[in-house]
Amino acid sequence: MRTRHAFRGFTGLGFLLMLFAQALAVPSAARAHGDTVKVVVTGQRDGHITTEITWENDGDAVEETVAATVNATSLDRTRSMGPWRLVRAPGTRAGWMTAEVLAPGTWKVTVDVGFPSLGHGEAEVAVPVVDPVPPSALTPTASVPAPVPSAPAPSSAAPSSSATRPTDPSSPSPSLGVATGGGDRTGWWTTAGLVGIALVGAAVGLRLRRARAGRH
User: Fold this and answer.
1) Model pTM?
2) How far apart are CA 86 and CA 49, in angstroms?
3) pLDDT digits (tens, 9 = 90+) for 136-157
4) DSSP label of 163
């Protein structure tokens, strides 16, 4: 029984010592980072206000979600924008930015952080005027390929005289002329032969008549 009561007492004492050690560890970690955060307004990106928030003492990035308010006032105090909250900038550890966009102009920007520790920062931020992109620049245009020089066509043979010279309907074609000339010559020789035969026959007949007359 005594051993069991002693074990219970030792266990309770160890648990109290563990809680005391954790309580000491938390303030020491907070003291390492510092009691405040450092806020630097770095400018703007496409109208979004950009900042860097780190711990004041060691410069480490704040891992916790930052609760902050952002306000912007024009230099002539005629316009004001906010309050806005900060969201973590993509691809950075200490970068924070607004989801909203500032209008073109020069602004005095103030950032007040309430968690995980207190912090304050301010700066002048200039947002330039961006000319709108004309619709013609947004419409893709198909590129026209450069004309490819074509190879020269092979020169054709010289045209024949019959193809280039117009044909006179009244004049006979060369082929018809040759055929006609040959036909005229053949007819001439045929007529001459007939005449010769007739003359020979007439001479023979005349001789026969003379021979008969001499006999009588």
Assistant:
1) 0.49
2) 9
3) 655 665 555 666 666 555 555 4
4) H
